[in-house]
Amino acid sequence: MSDAPVPAPRGASRTAVGVAALRWLHQSVDGEPKVLDDPISGPLLGESMLRTVAAHLGDPHAPALRELRAHVVLRSRFCEDHLAAAVARGATQLIVLGAGLDTFAYRQPAWARQLRIYEVDHPDSQAQKRHLLAQAQIAIPDNVEFVAIDFEQTSLADGLKAAGVDSSRQSFFSCLGVTMYLTEVAVDALFGLVARFPAGSEIVFTYQPEAQAAESALGRRVGALGEPWTYHISHRSLARKLKALGFQALEELAPRAAQARYFQDRTDGLRAPSRRGIAAAVVGVAPQ
């Protein structure tokens, strides 16, 4: 891995680097089996950036950092498990919203190669990612498209249409670590857009539950990086909102279910995070 400096464009997300570093820490300090196998995050960030971020994060075995790391790898694993099921039932497009330094496309399994993958993010964040990919000599797969959207200039619907996303095809949306940075109007528009895709389309997303929103340590930390949380909602209100748009029942991954499904019988002390807010919703059949 190169030690060359990485440009940090004005609008590039700083939290995206932290999330990628947490995925790398899971590979390097946690035991087996991995909740998420991600051999790409480390090479993508490079040794120099990894050292800087690791020093900033502190002791990887500290309880707060261990829980945050568990949340980050859990949400990606949950999303990728749901994506595999969506592909099995006919999804042909993957739209990664707020793609940041997500690595799924660069370690995609054989079953994903039939997908058209659209990575959507701010132009500055995408410029940084493309630089890092080139620096690490990580090839961009043929089925990947970068969709650079500045939401101050272009709507998500217009940006996806211009990129060639086909709204008549069953699709899967990944929206991890995004909704808490948006306004309620923007969140409603996002869910409304997904709801217009064919029945069976799905979105896996994270959100900030209302009960956990007030001055959490993580919220203060990302706010200090200049990326404050602006949106939170109760599970009940979210379920009503999605039902009104035509989604099937909201599935939220509860801590107890996450522990049983992904963290059972571990010997390294890594446990399912206590925080909630990882969810999935499938577009239902439109009413006649």
UniProtKB/TrEMBL annotation:
InterPro entries, sorted: Ppm1/Ppm2/Tcmp, SAM-dependent_MTases_sf, SAM_mthyl_Trfase_ML2640-like
Listed GO biological process terms: methylation
UniProt keyword Acetylation present: no
EC numbers: 2.1.1.-
GO molecular function, one term: methyltransferase activity
Enzyme class, spelled out: transferase
Alphabetical UniProt keywords: Methyltransferase, S-adenosyl-L-methionine, Transferase
Bilayer-spanning residue ranges: none
NCBIfam families associated with the record: mthyl_TIGR00027
Family listed: Belongs to the UPF0677 family.
Role: Exhibits S-adenosyl-L-methionine-dependent methyltransferase activity.
Protein name: S-adenosyl-L-methionine-dependent methyltransferase
Annotated organism of origin: Acidovorax bellezanensis
High-level lineage: Bacteria, Pseudomonadati, Pseudomonadota, Betaproteobacteria, Burkholderiales
